[in-house]
Amino acid sequence: MKKIHFREWGIESPRYWGMLAVLAAVVAIAGFATLYMEHEGHWVTGMNNQIVWGIPHVFAIFLIVAASGALNVASIGSVFGKKVFKPLAPLSGLLAMTLLIGGLLVLVLDLGQPARLIVAMTTYNFKSIFAWNIYLYVGFLAIVAVYLFTMMERKAMGYTRSVGTFAFVWRLALTTGTGSIFGFLVARQGYDAAIMAPMFIIMSFAYGLAIYLLVLMFTFKTDGRELGDKLIARLKNLLGVFVAAVLYFTVVYHLTNLYGTENHAYEAFILRDGGIYTTLFWGGWILAGCLIPMGIIYHPALGKSRGALVAACSLVILGGFAAIYVIVIGGQAFPMAMFPDKTIIASGFYDGVNGDPLSYSPSLPEFLLGIGGIAVALLATLVAVRVLRFLPESLADDVADPHAAAKGA
Amino acid sequence: MIRNKVMRLFVGFALGLFVSLGVAQAGEAIEGSAKADKLESCVRDTPFMRRNHFELIEHQRDITVHEGIRKTDSSIAGCIDCHVRRDAEGQPVPINAPGEFCATCHTRAAVTLDCFSCHATVPTPINPAPELLEEVKAHAAGMDPEIIEKAHAGMESGSAKQVTGN
Amino acid sequence: MSKQTDQGRRDFLSRAATAAAATTVAPGVFLHSVADAAPRAEPVTSKVRWGMLIDTTKCADGCTACVEACDVENGLDLIGKPEGASDAEWERQRPRWIREVKLKDNLTDRITTMPMLCQHCEFPPCVDVCPTGASFRRADGLVLVDRHTCIGCRYCMMACPYKARSFIHENVLLKSTAVPRGKGCVESCTFCVHRLDQGETTTACQDACSKDGHQAIIFGDLKDPNSAVSQAMSKYPTVEVRADLKLNTGVRYTGL
User: Fold this and answer.
1) Burial class (CB in 10 A: 0-12, 13-18, 19+), C116
2) Could you name the CATH architecture of C42-254?
3) Residue B73 is assigned to a structural domain of this protein
4) Among A173, A332, B74, B142, who pairs with B60 as Cys (CB 3.0-4.6 Å)?
5) For residue B5, what is the nearest residue in chain A, using CA coordinates?
């Protein structure tokens, strides 16, 4: 077996700096949008006292969930001992860190008092899953950093497996924590379900891998590095399994809800009458996020095309945004069931009169903040792969997995 | 204290902007018009207060919010009530206005004040006179800081209801 | 702003000052208060639990006395609509501590009118979820927000089953000494804590409701068997909103 060498991302300087400049411009615009929102207050956003979490939270939660999922490729290599995945691990760890940083940034900058972040870091209520998440997120960054070190520093390589295992357990806890933010909310019909935590974990598998694949194919193609068909096929099949699992959990979640009469109104809202939420559920979450990608991945011809794989990954990501939007915003838009057996026919504070959903129209600055989070994640990734050796020189099949290549030949 | 410094750094810019906008048009304060000007010393001796007033206020803040203790000599409302100066018309001048009690030292020491992002800078009653409130609301709709700060100062004498020990 | 108008306002303000001078007393003194009112000197204890009974049969349809009184008492009416905000959006973003709701029974069509406010739970979900502990339950049963540690994450608003909390979406330029408030924190009904801590025993909403002759709101110490609220609660059947959550709310309703 050939030894795998890692090398900095070597695309021509003008092109590289051009990419950085575009991303930096996006970050700068997002920065101005954030300053504007902080200066004026949240009234310039579409968020209100009914829809208290909006677009920034959709972006932040998506990025955080995807971050933990991006680490999976590394985990498969070092925890489950699949040799072929080992050269893929450094990029996987890197993406896990950068995506998480992007997501956290969005979350923090949307706070009413971002300057008091230091309070959040020094005063804790340990009954709050949010407080736990602060530890889980910061700890994740630290552990993955150590994990990366053990991969890249020859002397520390003996520890890769144990640190990797720890990181894997930690990322499961992290996504459980993120899912539980909603799972623990007894007040709202759409949340308060234990299945939220495992569903978030399986979503993270799919979204994280989709992003990983896109970044891997992009960095390799632009740098003229080889990426073997067998390797891509393995990752593609893995994505197919993850997407199918997302679909499975979604079905179970809604079937469980449909079984209990108390949840019928909520299910009718999401599945049938919810307008934008219904559209996003069927068109985004289910069709674009699950069915079409699965169709592409398992299609005998399309399944072999790199372009189709890019499309499938992109759709999984779009579907992911739709899913988080339906969960976060749809869950709030559905009026709380304060008075069973009664209909609220008038209210001085938007209580969902006659069962009408609560309104939310996101504003531009909110979107800019969210997109800024993605740009930060990409920017950090591109800088890191340029200055450090994250990418293998080649992942041609005879290099990455000579055994399989020989068998296939 | 590092925590406070970091916070101050963060909020400094935005807050400073508001304070300066808000009090631009306040009347000139009259020398010696604060209650404190007629007293020998503050609730502790002056050197102690200069160094430690924030410790007193912060301690008071926690026991007031969490334990409900309002009978005290170190509430921020008490500080403002005693140290605020008046202009020629008898209206209180916001305590964080340039040259006023809080601002003088804090500007010199370059320590930003976070208190007044929530706390009133002049003593206010619970119920302003109705016509004054109308005036305030009419202008508050436009959020013109000049008008608001002025009306705010006027509120102090707008009604009989006066609360301290906040 | 023309100089003329400015002068007019100054005259107006000084007139207001003169008019009020006759009734102004020394700071720290309450005029709308019970005889033995004094600022609290000892920490609150769990020997007292403040609570409220709302008789929905006495609550008048179309009456908003409690809402208006709360707005004035807690300075909610001092918050202006930001320039450029649409009316519809602003109504969704402005803070409300108490609101009127009107319900129709799905089976019998019976109409109920009642105020909703923070229910001051014994086991408040907002306190459970608050990452910094800024949401807390005081020993005497009040569920409050410590604005000094509130970071504005709004998780408490996600968790509250009564939609009782509001976020301050805008800069607050006009501030009240009794009820400090600033942009970026969450707040909700405090049972007029600034009154209770001065030894008073009524809330603004209760006073307003009584003044209008409805007497739909009774406030007091749930642990004192002789208090009006305890007496009334022992006499009539009362319910909690969302009793299924077992939060043991401090606000109870009759006729619901």
Assistant:
1) buried
2) 2-Layer Sandwich (3.30)
3) yes
4) B74
5) A118
Cβ-based contacts of A119 with chain B (< 8 Å) = 3, 7
B56 belongs to a structural domain: yes
What residues does C100 pair with on adjacent strands? C115
* 409 residues of chain A, pLDDT tens digit each: 567 889 999 999 999 999 999 999 999 999 999 999 999 999 999 999 999 999 999 999 999 999 999 999 999 998 888 888 999 999 999 999 999 999 999 999 999 999 888 888 888 899 999 999 999 999 999 999 999 999 988 888 889 999 999 999 999 999 999 999 988 888 898 888 889 899 999 999 999 999 999 999 999 999 999 999 999 999 999 999 999 999 999 999 999 999 888 889 999 999 999 999 999 999 999 999 999 999 999 999 999 999 999 999 999 999 999 999 999 999 999 999 899 889 999 999 999 899 999 999 999 999 999 999 999 999 999 999 999 999 999 999 887 776 655 554 4
Nearest chain C alpha carbon to A340? C242
Alpha-carbon gap: A173 to the closest alpha carbon of chain C (Å): 18
Number of domains in chain A: 1
Q: Look up residue B105 and give its amino acid.
A: C
Helix (H, G, I), strand (E, B) or coil at A347: strand
Spell out a b/e string for B39-68, using b for 16 or more CB atoms within 10 Å of the CB, else e. eeebeeeeeeeeeebeebeeebbeebbebb
Q: Does A43 sit within 8 Å of C132, measured CB to CB?
A: no
- Total domains in chain B come to 1
- Cβ-Cβ contacts under 8 Å between A and C: the total is 183
CA atoms in the 13 A half-sphere facing the CB of A111: 20
SS3 content of chain A, % helix, strand, coil (to 5): 75, 5, 20
Residues of chain C in contact with residue A119, where contact means CB-CB under 8 angstroms, are 132, 149, 151
| CA separation for the pair A279, B150 (Å, rounded) | 51
Sequence spans of domains, chain C: 42-254
Cβ-defined contact of A118 to B11 (cutoff 8 Å): no
Residues 4-43 of B with CB under 8 A from A: 6-7, 10-11, 14
Query: How far apart are alpha carbons B128 and B136 in whole angstroms?
Result: 10
Which domain covers residue B104, as residue numbers?
Answer: 2-121
State the DSSP code for C80.
Answer: P
Nearest-Cα residue of chain C relative to residue B139: C80
Per the structure, the complete domain to which residue A63 belongs is given by 6-339+376-408
Cα–Cα distance for residue pair A257/A261, rounded to 1 Å: 8
